[in-house]
Design a protein that fits this description.
The chain has 279 residues and is α/β, with parallel strands linked by helices. The protein is 39% helix and 21% strand.
Amino acid sequence: MAILSIQSHVAYGYVGNKAAVYPLQAMGYDVWPVNTVQFSNHTGYGHWEGEIFSKEHIHQVILGLETLNLIPSCQAILSGYMGSEAICHEVAETVKRFKAKNPALLYLCDPVIGNQHCFVKPEVLEFFKHHLVADIITPNQYEAETLSGIPIKTVADLKTTAQFFQDKGSQVVIITGVKLNDVAPDTLHIYGGEGNQHYLLAAKEYTFPVPPSGTGDLFSAVFLGSYLTYKNLDHALRRSVDLMNRVLAKTAASGGRELRVLDVDYKQDNTVAVNSIMI
């Protein structure tokens, strides 16, 4: 079972493919990482070295995989931060080619835009607004609100936003980092919707001297791995939240700013530690 992961790469730290590849491998997946950039470290440090790869470079790497006739063994494609509209289109074209030969393949897109503000190029935001087609999407609350134009303040707003994305073709909608006025307003939630199923899970909040980057990259990876394994939204959500809780607890205890991705057993299924409610 293989997953093609198209994301950024850093030599030091755990964001992009560095946050996604090891957990998926530990879950038993053969991961094919295609790097959109190679930097010394993530940009949150203020200084970094490295190179942004072109659409042509990414296309050639993926074409090499296709030449080996590997598409039938690929279960899913995972994508995260996109540095340009050209790369967005390359990923979309790759998904179309892979699905043409393997209709059962799932595409999970984490439409990375920002948190409190938009930090991607306007052309990338416009692509996500008008051209994004993915089986599974995992925006945070800010990203979901920005893409849908719907402010999320209540459970009803969550369902309306999920329907917006489902109408665009996403069968599974995950929204992370949600604060709601009508359900425990002081609690951070994760929402998951598939068809008429709607789940809400509480997530532990941790305090960091410098908040770690890459949490969205890690969550998208462990959710995809869990969903592919169990084919059950509720189970996959609870397992993903538990794994994130354990990584974040290790990170907080370390006092550092990099996710402790290597310190958790990703084969462990401790879903009983996480409650979900149907809404």
